[in-house]
Amino acid sequence: MLAGLLTVPLGAETAVLEAVADAAGPGTGRVREFPAGNVIVIQFRTWGVFRWQVDSADLFLHIASGPVPTSVEVAIITDNWTEADPFTDTGKLAFTVCKSRSEPQDWISVRVPSAMVEELAAGRAPGGLAVRVKSAKPLSIHARESSSFTPNLIVSGSK
């Protein structure tokens, strides 16, 4: 379903990177939703794009409740973490405001800078992505544990 929403350059390959871990701070553990305002950290299985030159990357998040976010910021995490001991030192991260748009059925797509995804693909950012979602009204994003609404990173590029 999500792959049909993207335009892919001719000759490029596309990979869907599934989230393998996510958290939103200490004690969140395995939850089904993350409220806006928290920094959500997400690790992806990146073996499918190892050392790719990335043309584009879109992070798909599902809105569990609330409006479309007013702003989405993304940063890479160079430290390792686990869901039991999530990354919380978000003050040292270099967040970038990313273009986001509303998609059908309460999804949003966030255009992640290619350079960030290349860091993930090269193994230099094993902690994955940190995502800060802002909204003027209460909003929550589905976590990986919600199963059918798990975050995905769709990457187009070449080897």
Description:
This protein has 159 residues and is mainly β. It has one domain: Sandwich (Jelly Rolls), CATH 2.60.120. Helix content is 5%, strand content 43%. It is built from 1 helix and 11 strands. Strands 1, 2, 3, 4, 5, 6, 7, 8, 9, 10 and 11 form an 11-stranded antiparallel β-sheet that branches. The longest helix has 8 residues. It is globular, with a radius of gyration of 14 Å. It starts with 12 loop residues before the first strand and ends with a strand. The mean pLDDT is 87.
List keywords for this structure.
eleven-stranded antiparallel sheet, 1 helix, Jelly Rolls, globular, mainly beta, 5% helix, 159 residues, 43% strand
Number of helices: 1
Largest β sheet strand count, sense and barrel closure: 11 strands, antiparallel
pLDDT < 50 runs, ≥5 residues: none
Helical fraction = under 10%
Strand tally: 11
CATH class term: Mainly Beta
**Overall body shape:** globular
Termini distance? 25 Å
If you consult CATH, what is the topology?
Answer: Jelly Rolls
Oligomer: single chain
